[in-house]
């Protein structure tokens, strides 16, 4: 069964939002990117706080990600559902291999193994 393992939130102040999630919920910061994006985890779900760089663009949920067992199976199910097949994510992106869209155009990531790297490959960083 597919499991939601990733959420991405667009914000004008990733540091402020990260502090909130650390202080209130005890999330751990896993990575601070040069872009200003911050990646956090509760040990199961990871949250990407993405810097809002576009004027007038709203903050809020950007996308979510499913950890899946079989990419070919999910791709076939998406095509049967009448939506485009998933597209490969850029190789320099962490955690997800593919990006897809639901019938309303909401985008989501798909990963067979990528979301596990949040816990296994990265050491927590100091705030």
Quick structural overview:
This protein is α+β, with helices and mostly antiparallel strands.
Can you characterise this structure?
- The protein is of the alpha+beta class and 127 residues long.
- It has one domain (3-120): 2,3-Dihydroxybiphenyl 1,2-Dioxygenase, domain 1, CATH 3.10.180.10.
- Helix content is 20%, strand content 34%.
- The chain has helices spanning 14-25, 71-80, 117-120, and strands spanning 3-11, 28-32, 38-41, 46-51, 60-67, 87-88, 98-101, 107-111.
- Strands 2-3-4-1-5-8-7-6 form an eight-stranded mixed beta sheet, covered by helices on one side.
- The longest helix has 12 residues, at 14-25.
SSE order and pairing:
Blueprint: E1 3-11, H1 14-25, E2 28-32, E3 38-41, E4 46-51, E5 60-67, H2 71-80, E6 87-88, E7 98-101, E8 107-111, H3 117-120
Parallel strand pairs: 1-4, 5-8
Antiparallel strand pairs: 1-5, 2-3, 3-4, 6-7, 7-8
Low-confidence stretches: 117-127
- What radius of gyration results from the CA coordinates? 15 Å
Spatial separation of the terminal alpha carbons = 35 Å
How confident overall, as mean pLDDT?
A: 82
CATH architecture: Roll
Number of strands: 8
Given the helix and strand composition, which structural class is it?
alpha+beta
General shape: globular
**Whole-number tally of structural domains:** 1
* CATH class type: Alpha Beta
């Amino acid at each position: 069964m597919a499991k939601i393992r990733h959420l991405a939130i667009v914000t004008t102040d990733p540091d402020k939002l990260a502090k909130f999630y650390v202080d209130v919920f005890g999330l751990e910061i896993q990575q601070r990117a040069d872009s200003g994006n911050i990646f956090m985890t509760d040990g199961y779900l990871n949250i990407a706080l993405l810097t809002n760089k576009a004027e007038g663009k709203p903050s809020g949920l950007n996308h979510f990600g499913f950890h899946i067992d079989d990419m070919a199976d999910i791709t076939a199910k998406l095509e049967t559902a009448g939506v485009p097949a998933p597209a490969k994510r850029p190789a320099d992106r962490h955690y997800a291999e593919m990006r897809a869209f639901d019938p309303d155009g909401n985008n989501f990531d798909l990963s067979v193994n990528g979301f596990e790297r949040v816990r296994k490959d990265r050491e927590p960083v100091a705030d």
